[in-house]
Design brief:
heterodimer; A: mainly alpha; 3 helices; B: seven-stranded mixed beta sheet; 24 helices; 8 strands
C-alpha cells in the first residue's frame, strides 16, 4: 500500500487511533477517518465493535450473561 | 410533430448529516414526492427544482461516506451514481470534514458523473478555526464550488446558475479519470489509494489547516498502548475490577443466599405446613424451586458489578485498546492478532464469541479461534470462582479470581501454540488493524440502562435455565433406583442422581475431590456453567447427612473438601477452580462448535480440553499438598 492510504494504514496497524495517525502524519483528522472507513469497507480494518452485536441477550439465553453483548 | 422535452435529472449526493436534505428542501420547497428506489424498500425523495427557468428533477440520495456500500441505503446511492441516465451530480461538501466529502466527490467523478459542488457548514468550520475557500477549492477541482446554507437559503441562486451552466457544458473534475472501474479487490484498493492521494493534494492546495494538537486521548494512549506498559496496565485494570467485584459482591451474594435459604425458606415451609401439604410438595418447593431462585438472586449483585465495570471500560474506549495490546502479544507468539476480538467476547460468553469469529477472513483462522474460545473464562464461571475463592481464600479472593483469568489467557496461548504446531500448521497469522475510538467518559444514564437491561435479561433468561435445571435435579433426586424407597422420599445415594454422582466421584480422587456432590455439580455444569453452584447448593439442601442444616454453602463445602483432600483444602479448592475453568464447554457452546466446525473438531477439542484440565487440576493438587 502506498501514499496517504498506506501511511494511515501503517499507523493503524501500529495501534494508533485515526486521530493519533492524523497527528503523526500531519493530515486532517477526517482524512485519516475516511481512510479507516474505506479500509473497513474493503475488509482491511475492523471496527472496535465488530465482534460485538453477534448476539441478542433479550432473545438468547446463552447470551444473557455476556457483559459485552449489545444491550 | 411536437417532440417531448426531456426533464434533466440531477442527483444530490453527500455524506450523512452534512445538511443535504435541508438544502434539498430549500431548493425544491413543496414540490416533492417520495418513492421507493427501484427493487428496494429504501425511500427516495425527489423534487422539482427550477433551474434557469426549466424544471429539473432533483433526487435526494441517502447519505453515504463511500460508494462501496455497507447498507441497502448506501447501495441505492451507489447504484444511482453509477446510472448514466442522470445528467449531473450536486455533491454536498461538509466544510468541517472536507477530506471525507472530497473522497466521495472523487468517487462520483470516477463513476463518470459531471459534478457541481455545494459547500455547507462554512460558519461552523470558521468557528473551529478552519478557513475553507470555495474559490480556491473550485480552482483546484476544476468544477464549480458554491457556498450554500440550506437554512437561510444563502447561495441557492448561485448554485442554480452553476447547475444551469453545468447541464449545458458538463464539468469534469481535474485529476480524476472518469469511468475508473474496479472489478477486483487489488483494483479497488488501487483506486482508493489514487483517490486519497488526490484528496490530499486538493486539501493541501485549498484548505490551510492549523498544527495538530496532542489530545488527552493521545497522552493516555502513549501509556496504555506502550509496548512495555500496555500489558501490565491492562493486568492492573483487570485485577482492580476483580478486587472490586469480590469485595462488594461476595458479602451481598452471601446475604441473598442466607435470606432465601433462611427466613424465606422457613416461611414457605410454614405456609405449606399450615395447609397440610404433602412432604414431597414442600420438598419440591423449598429444595427445588426456592433453591434455584435463591441461586439466581445471589448472582445478581455479582452480575450488576461486573456489567457496570466492563460496561464502563467498553464505553470509555479502553476495551478496544485491550485488543491492540493483546494483538502484539499474540503476534509475538505467532498467533493471529485478529482473533483477539472474538476471544475478548468469549470472556463474556463463549457462544456469541464463536459467532464473532466471523470477523476473521479465513476459514482456518476461524477454526483455530473457535477451538480456543471455550478456554476463555465466561462470566458464568465467575460465579463459581467467586464462591470458591471466598470460601477457601477469603483474604485474597480478588487476587485468586484474577489469577483464574490470567490462567485462562495462558491456556488460550498454550493450546493455540500447540494447535499451530500440530493440527493447524497452515494458519497464517495476520495483524489486527483496528479503528480505535477516542477515549470518552462513560455516560452514566446509558451505562445504567445497559446494566439494568443486562441484569434483568440475565435474571429472566439464565435464571429460567438455572431454575429449570435445579427442578430437573430435584426430580432425579426424588426417583429411587435402589433400596425400595417411595418416590420423593429417597436418601440421595439411592436416587438416580446419587447413583450417577457416586459413579463419577472416584474419578476426582487424584484432585482431592472424591465427593458425590462435587462430582454431580461438575456433571450438571456441562448443561450450563451457571448451574454448578446451584447444583452444589441443592445437593447440600437435600442431603440428610449434612451435619449442620443452618450452615452456609461455603461452610458445607469447606468441610467436604477438607475431608476429601486429607486436610489440604486450599490445594483441592484451587484444583477445583482450574478444573471448572476448562474441563468441558457448556452444551450451547458445544452445539455451536459442532454447527460451525463439525463433530470431529468439536470432539477433538473437547477431549483435549478435558484431558488437559484433568492433568492440570491433578498436578495442582498433588504439588499443592506437598507445600
Amino acid at each position: 500500500m502506498s501514499g496517504v492510504f498506506g501511511a494511515v494504514m501503517e499507523r493503524l496497524a501500529a495501534g494508533e487511533s485515526p486521530r493519533a495517525a492524523a497527528r503523526t502524519l500531519g493530515i486532517p483528522l477526517d482524512l485519516a477517518e475516511a481512510v479507516a472507513d474505506q479500509a473497513a469497507r474493503l475488509g482491511l480494518v475492523v471496527s472496535a465493535s465488530a465482534a460485538c452485536g453477534t448476539c441478542i441477550p433479550q432473545s438468547s439465553p446463552a447470551c444473557a450473561g455476556c457483559p459485552l453483548a449489545s444491550a | 410533430m411536437k417532440q417531448a422535452v426531456r426533464t434533466a435529472s440531477v442527483l444530490l449526493v453527500g455524506n450523512p448529516n452534512v445538511g443535504k436534505s435541508t438544502l434539498f428542501n430549500a431548493l425544491t420547497r413543496s414540490r416533492q414526492r417520495v418513492v421507493n428506489a427501484p427493487g428496494t424498500t429504501v425511500a427516495l425523495t425527489s423534487g422539482s427544482w427550477s433551474v434557469g427557468g426549466n424544471a429539473v428533477s432533483l433526487v435526494d440520495l441517502p447519505g453515504t461516506y463511500s460508494l462501496i456500500s455497507r447498507s441497502p441505503d448506501e447501495q441505492v446511492a451507489a447504484d444511482a451514481v453509477e446510472d448514466s441516465s442522470h445528467d449531473l451530480a450536486v455533491v454536498v461538501l461538509d466544510a468541517t470534514a472536507l477530506s471525507r466529502s472530497l473522497y466521495l466527490l472523487g468517487q462520483v467523478a470516477a463513476a463518470g458523473q459531471p459534478v457541481v459542488a455545494a459547500l455547507t457548514m462554512v460558519d461552523l468550520a470558521q468557528a473551529r478555526g478552519l478557513r475553507p475557500d470555495a474559490a480556491a477549492l473550485s480552482a483546484s477541482l476544476g468544477v464549480p464550488v458554491v457556498e450554500v446554507n440550506g437554512r437561510t437559503g444563502h447561495g441557492s441562486t448561485a448554485l442554480e446558475l452553476a447547475v444551469a451552466a453545468a447541464l449545458v457544458e458538463p464539468p469534469t473534475v481535474r485529476g480524476i479519470e472518469p469511468d475508473l472501474h474496479a472489478a477486483t479487490l487489488p483494483d479497488t484498493l488501487a483506486c482508493a489509494q489514487h483517490l486519497f492521494d488526490w484528496v490530499e493534494s486538493v486539501t493541501d492546495a485549498a484548505v490551510p489547516t492549523g498544527e495538530p494538537r496532542l489530545t488527552a486521548s493521545d497522552r493516555l494512549d502513549s501509556v496504555l498502548l506502550n509496548p512495555w506498559l500496555g500489558l501490565p496496565s491492562f493486568l492492573v485494570v483487570v485485577w482492580a475490577v476483580f478486587q472490586l467485584t469480590t469485595a462488594v459482591a461476595g458479602p451481598l451474594m452471601d446475604a441473598a443466599a442466607r435470606l432465601v435459604g433462611g427466613p424465606v425458606a422457613t416461611a414457605v415451609s410454614s405456609a405449606f405446613g399450615a395447609i397440610n401439604a404433602p412432604g414431597w410438595i414442600v420438598s419440591f418447593a423449598v429444595d427445588g424451586v426456592l433453591a434455584g431462585v435463591g441461586t439466581v438472586l445471589s448472582f445478581v449483585p455479582l452480575m450488576a458489578i461486573m456489567f457496570t465495570a466492563v460496561g464502563a471500560l467498553e464505553g470509555s474506549g479502553y476495551l478496544a485498546r485491550v485488543a491492540v495490546v493483546a494483538d502484539r502479544s499474540m503476534r509475538a507468539l505467532g498467533l493471529d492478532g485478529r482473533a483477539m476480538l472474538p476471544l475478548i467476547v468469549g470472556f463474556g460468553c463463549n457462544v456469541p464469541a464463536l459467532s464473532a469469529t466471523a470477523v476473521l477472513p479465513h476459514a482456518r483462522q476461524r477454526l483455530l479461534t473457535g477451538l480456543l474460545v471455550p478456554l476463555t473464562s465466561c462470566t458464568a464461571r465467575l460465579a463459581a470462582y467467586l464462591m470458591l475463592a471466598h470460601t477457601f481464600f477469603p483474604s485474597q479472593a480478588g487476587t485468586v479470581v484474577f489469577a483464574m483469568y490470567v490462567g485462562s489467557a495462558v491456556l488460550v496461548i498454550g493450546w493455540g501454540l500447540i494447535a499451530r504446531r500440530t493440527v493447524l500448521r497452515d494458519v497464517v497469522p495476520e495483524p489486527l488493524i483496528i479503528a480505535l475510538p477516542d477515549y470518552q467518559s462513560p455516560h452514566a444514564r446509558s451505562l445504567g440502562m445497559s446494566v439494568w437491561t443486562r441484569v434483568s435479561s440475565f435474571v429472566r433468561k439464565a435464571g429460567t435455565i438455572i431454575v429449570l435445571v435445579v427442578i430437573a435435579l430435584w426430580v432425579l433426586q426424588a426417583i429411587p433406583v435402589r433400596g425400595g424407597h417411595p418416590l420423593a422420599d429417597v436418601p440421595i445415594e439411592d436416587s438416580a442422581y446419587g447413583a450417577v454422582a457416586h459413579t463419577a466421584a472416584p474419578g476426582l480422587t487424584p484432585m482431592g475431590l472424591n465427593d458425590w456432590k462435587i462430582a454431580s455439580a461438575l456433571v450438571t455444569g456441562v448443561a450450563a456453567k451457571e448451574v454448578v453452584i446451584a447444583a452444589l447448593a441443592q445437593s447440600y439442601a437435600v442431603d440428610d447427612a449434612a451435619a449442620d442444616a443452618d450452615a452456609t454453602l461455603g461452610q458445607h463445602l469447606r468441610a467436604t473438601v477438607t475431608q476429601t483432600s486429607g486436610g489440604h483444602a486450599s490445594a483441592a479448592a484451587l484444583a477445583l477452580m482450574i478444573f471448572t475453568l476448562s474441563y468441558v464447554p457448556c452444551m450451547a457452546t458445544l452445539a455451536e462448535q459442532r454447527r460451525l466446525y463439525g463433530w470431529r473438531w468439536t470432539a477433538l477439542a473437547a477431549g483435549a480440553q478435558f484431558t488437559g484440565a484433568y492433568l492440570m487440576a491433578t498436578a495442582v493438587f498433588q504439588l499443592g499438598r506437598l507445600l
